[in-house]
Description:
Layout: H1 11-22, H2 28-40, H3 42-57, H4 70-86
The protein binds zinc ion (ZN).
Amino acid sequence: MAMPEKTDLTCNELVELVTDYLEGALPTHDRLDFEHHLVWCSWCRDYLDHMRRTIELTGGPDESEPPSPLREQLLDAFKDWKRTRET
Ligand SMILES: [Zn+2]
């Protein structure tokens, strides 16, 4: 019996869950169904890819670009330097 279980998501259900998935808001059980669907459905993989890029462009919840720590490091170094000069 190779029939898929009825717990599998349909593409419509996946589309409804995609923002929750990208926000990490899906319960584990739903997330597993979601990822299982992606294994065999290339349409939904493309859709997820597209949504993820859209959210990145619009500054959504996906924080793929952490703020550069370099500026703060420089400021700290400057403050230390100033403090040692003053004492
Ligand atoms: Zn699908």
